[in-house]
Structures are given as structure tokens and as C-alpha cells.
């Protein structure tokens, strides 16, 4: 029996103890992400149209139960030196079908709420550089509105084939108690675990992600320190935790997104 298998058994035992203490909000929901690139000279006009045009459209979609929540972020710190997008649209729903032809839905509603010139001008910013569909596998938030935190950190993970279950168990039963401790001491507002639905395949580069919600930029630096790990897992070998994480996944990149507006 190898080290990962032994450690997985330990995690299963820990899961039986801690599962009842977990609070989960939107576990099982789906998340649609559009990555948008706006030219620098267009940013003032684009952001002005968010409140005048795009937000009312999303409010109408929520009123009609098409989506549950909507967020728009500015990419404050991109995960690459040559980023291809600088804004991100995030929509949540409990039904994947709600994302069918989502751009067409938005354009149709926009035509009803704004004049044709404004609608035509804004449509150029609705063509995403890339779109993704994710499933929210776990969600623990300090408050119902924790997703409206000022900062959101998206950590993109490449989990090895066949290690998906072990990786998710590591996140749920090892990383989550550490994040909960950070929430208890007001260093974090929430944490979520996502699995990528589409696009997919080994060539895409990643298949899981974690989302971390913060109110203050200075709290980013308080991560998996040895002190916090020991407080959350006093009887666990820290080196074994680090080695098992390293063997199950690679952190592809981390990005910091700053919230511009939201509707929920």
C-alpha cells in the first residue's frame, strides 16, 4: 500500500468526523465564466455601460430565474506576463441548461432595455476571449454575501489522471479546515472548489480550481503557513501533506480578480 493510499484512508476517517461540521452553500451549482478583453482606451466607456446596460440585463435574468447570481471582475493581477483578457464575467445557476445560448439571451434582453446604438456598441465586448463551464464541488462562505468580497483569487490546478478523487479529498479534508481557521480569524471570507466541465482534455492545461474570497489585499500572504497548518491539523505530518498535494496536482497559475459589480 503506497503512501498516497495510506494518507487517503486517514483522510476518509477525518471526513467522517468533520463532515457534519461543514457548511455548504452552493455545492452542486454550475458556474459560467467569460474571459473578456477590453482595449485600454475603451475601459471608461465599458465600465460606464456595466451599470447602465449590462447590470439591468443581469437583474432581469435573475428575476426570471434564468441565473442565480452574476459577478463582473477586473483582473487586478493576471496569472501570466502576457494576459489575453482583463475582465471576467461569472454567472451561477443550479441548471446547466440556463447557460444555453447565454450571449444571445443577453443581447435579446439588452435590446429590450437599451436603445439600439448602445446595444450595438456594447455587443463588441460580449465576445469572450474564452468561455468555461465549471461545477462547484464544495462551497464554504462566512456570510451569504461572501462572494461579493472585494477580491477573489482563482487558483487553476492540473490534477493528474486518476488522482481526481484523492485531490478533492485533500482539498475537502485537509485544505478546507485550514481555510476555515483563516475565516475564524477574519483573514478570509470564503473558499470554493471547482471542477472543469468544458472545455476539457489533457491539452487544456487545468481541470480543477479553487476560489478564495478576501476583503483585504494584505490577507493574501497568509496562506498555508506551518503555524496555521499545525493549528488546524495538530497531529498531521506537515511534510506528508505537502508531498501528497505535490503528487496529486500542479498549481498552473493564480489570478487576483477585483469585484466591480454584482447582482444576486
UniProtKB/TrEMBL annotation:
Keywords: Signal. Residues 1-23 form the signal peptide. It comes from the Bacteria. This is GLPGLI family protein. It comes from Rhodohalobacter sulfatireducens. The lineage of its organism: Bacteria, Pseudomonadati, Balneolota, Balneolia, Balneolales.
